[in-house]
Design a protein that fits this description.
Blueprint (H helix, E strand, L loop, with lengths): L3 H7 L9 H5 L4 H54 L12 E5 L9 H9 L5 E3 L7 E6 L4 E7 L2 H54 L16 H88 L4 H25 L7 E4 H15 L1 H4 L3 E6 L5 E4 L1 H22 L5 E11 L2 E10 L29 H11 L3 E6 L8 E8 L7
Parallel strand pairs: 6-8
Antiparallel strand pairs: 1-4, 2-3, 3-4, 5-7, 8-9, 9-11, 10-11
Length: 510
Amino acid sequence: MIKEEDRATDQTPSGRRFSTYRILSGMRIRKKLIVLHTAFSLGLGTILLIAIRPAMSKVIYGAEIDLGQRVLSILLEEEAAIGEIRVPEQIQAECRVLTGPDATLGISDQILFQARREPRAAIPAPADEFAAGVICWLEHRDRFLLVRARSDRARDAIQLVYLLVITTLLVGYGLVAAALELFVLPQHVYRPISAMLQADQAVAEGDRKREIIPDSEIPADELGSIMRSRNEAIHALRTHEHELADALDRLEQTAADLHKKNHLLETARKNLEGADRLASLGMMSAGIAHELNTPLAVVKGLVEKLNRDRELSDTEVALLVRVVGRLETLSEGLLDFARVRPPLNEHADLVELIREAVTLVKIDRKHAAGEVQVAVNSYADSIDVVCDPDRLVQVFVNLVRNAVDALVESEAQAPQVTIHVEHETRESMPWLAIRVIDNGPGIDVELIDRLFEPFVSTRLDAQGTGLGLAVAHGIIREHGGLLTATNRSSSETSGAVFEVLLPQERPESV
């Protein structure tokens, strides 16, 4: 059985191998019409000839039967007169006379039975390759007599009829073809198609004046509907183009306005940055003045006493030395904050740098070395990083020292500082996370948002300048990393957490 899909495929133009679509698709309209009209005329002529053939054959059959009956009458008259059957010479060329057994060849039993029932009557006999005829039963001779008479006149007349029919068809085909080619097709087919082609060519060339087909060229038939639909599509397309052009103009105007606004915003941002810098400079100047006033007041008082008394006590000399050292510490902190030294790029062991920072804090804070326990936990014994080793040590010294000082000042129970070094992947990039965790009182919530600003400190005494965390934040940022500060989230344990994130592969541009 043929599948439904195959049957459906065969019904499509691409599925029929020898379809009219494939035959006519490569022809122009004129050739298509000629082929279709010729095929129609040939088909019509064939049908007509087939339709009239039975009638023509019946005419020939009737004429030959009539002629056979006349010949049979003549033969019977001759047989009655002379006692025998003799065919006249003038009809021998057109007739065949058979008697005896040969007369029944090719004749059905029904006709022979009818002839026996009607002796000497002319019974029509079917035609053979020569002609039709009649048969009769000669009772006194006990035999059949078959006469076949060929009517050439009737056959010639039928041939003439066929010729006239064919001639009529050809003449009709010629008249129809001439009428189509001279009156119908040029005006109603070729001209509209030519007008559409010229209009399409104008569209391709961008000629707006000729792209619309004039109404005078549009007929009132299906081609006219196609042409009107095309004109409407062109009008709609041009309308959309104008709307799009207007939209683009508005977009360009909006973009220009947006550009101006962005320029104004950028200018305002720069002005705000300048104002912010001035405010920061003012805060920094106030902090520097606050930090310097007390030591300078001491120095001034001691210098005035030295100028007046010409001598200082040992206690006063020691105080002057400490005050000058304090001023020197402030100066170094300001230089570090300004980052006047360019960072280095060297391979170093991160775990070793952290342990070195812990050792320096223990040396600097000898009184707290026995009170606070400092532990380093790392996922590896050695971690290679590209950095500025001295500056990273400075960062970890600041973080560990701040934690130790906070624990000592708060007199925390079982004070402990833990440094965790872990490997993390964030946004498909490898990072090193160093967390300095203590169990002290934590960071004041009012300071946590501006903890890395300069001169923000809870210990404005000899041990705190307010620049340590700001310097540390700048160093970590120079290394492409991030420094954050939070309080421990556990409700049972207090303390601060400082997290340093460093890229495991440091970018060259940093």
